[in-house]
Design goal:
By secondary structure, the chain is of the alpha/beta class. The chain contains 14 helices and eight strands.
Length: 342
């Protein structure tokens, strides 16, 4: 039997997966703009492939692609009557790929319906979350992730609904271009509120890259020193005055040049562990190569086992010739004696 998420977190850091909707849009399977996840129905193999890439890269959790799989959001593309089919398909695909290797997280996201002064709006959010959860839990998710809540109030409703399932609950907030939630709460205040509401794992996700997120996650660590802490930043560069990547003019069609390197995402994973992040994941823009380098930093992948003899007397690759081997000893001028022929 697989260990549950809380059991795994007690043993050490857990590595999450990367971004789905934007990567699937780049591959031609998701429509930019609505970013609704009907790919689980229209091309399940494309979704299965991306899950498989994250699993092979070392991810220990696969999130079911049910972000924006709510009735009101699906209604914007005429799919409100496929909510049940979509949520079921997304969880089943994730479970098929996960097997015994990974946990599968159900997923709730912002609804765009929350209004802090409206009880009717809050009830509608509850109904939205409960509808999705009933399907996802019925399909056998291992725990629930609620994410990308710029309103702390909406995040607290996600905790409330998810706790009723009896499963472990992870809920993360996001900051847009101000360093507070939409109602003006700091990261530390949000963390305390989420823990007090019963969330098992709290933190931040999406919108911002590591450099504009981790300092706030560190504030959360100080505010809730005994709670499990999560970080799932995007893998895009953003300027300090507009740290939310969705606010940039490059969103969504010209983000390619803003993507972080695999080395930078590895550095993020190392920094996250240094400040005490327990659940180290990623979000939009993060692909399997990023997750693999994060896995190496977190010691989730074995060392390369295939033999390869490096011969600096007669280089057999540009890797040797131009001294890219970080383990090599001695000056390159000694090792590189032969010119590249041809």
């Amino acid at each position: 039997m697989k260990k549950g998420i809380l059991e795994k977190l007690k043993e050490g850091p857990v590595l999450g997966d990367g971004g789905y909707l934007l990567e699937l849009e780049k591959r031609g399977w998701v429509r930019a703009g609505p970013f609704t996840p009907e790919v689980a129905l229209t091309n399940p193999e494309a979704l299965r492939q991306l899950h498989s890439e994250f699993r092979a890269a070392g991810a220990e959790v696969l999130q079911a692609l049910t972000f924006y799989a709510s009735r009101d959001k699906l209604a914007t593309v005429g799919l409100q009557d496929r909510l049940g089919d979509l949520n079921r398909a997304a969880v089943r695909i994730a479970k098929q790929v996960a097997g015994e290797s990974c946990l599968v997280a159900g997923n709730l996201s912002l609804t765009w319906m929350y209004e802090p002064e409206s009880d009717a709006a809050k009830d509608r959010v509850r109904a939205t979350f409960n509808e999705q959860l009933s399907i996802q839990v019925g399909e056998g998710v291992d725990f629930v992730i609620g994410e990308t809540f710029s309103w702390l109030g909406e995040a607290l409703i996600a905790v409330e609904c998810a706790k009723k399932t009896g499963l472990p609950v992870m809920v993360t907030i996001c900051f847009e271009n101000k360093n507070v939630t939409a109602e003006g709460k700091s990261a530390a205040d949000a963390a305390r509120a989420l823990v007090d509401a019963g969330a098992d794992i709290v933190g931040m996700n999406c919108l911002r890259p590591p450099e504009h997120m981790l300092k706030h996650v560190e504030d959360m660590r100080k505010a809730v020193p005994n709670a499990f802490l999560a970080a799932q930043p995007v893998a895009y560069h953003t300027p300090a005055d507009k740290p939310d990547f969705t606010s940039l003019p490059q969103f969504p069609f010209e983000l390619d040049n803003l993507q972080l390197s695999r080395k930078q995402m590895a550095e993020y994973a190392r920094a996250a562990r240094q400040i005490g992040v327990d659940y180290v994941g990623a979000c939009c823009g993060a692909v399997a190569t990023h997750i693999r380098e994060m896995a190496r930093v977190l010691e989730k992948l074995p060392a390369e086992q295939r033999p390869w003899t490096l011969n600096y007397e007669k280089p057999m690759s540009a890797y040797e010739y131009y001294d890219h081997d970080p383990t090599a000893v001695g000056p390159a001028s000694v090792r590189r004696k032969q010119p590249i022929e041809g």
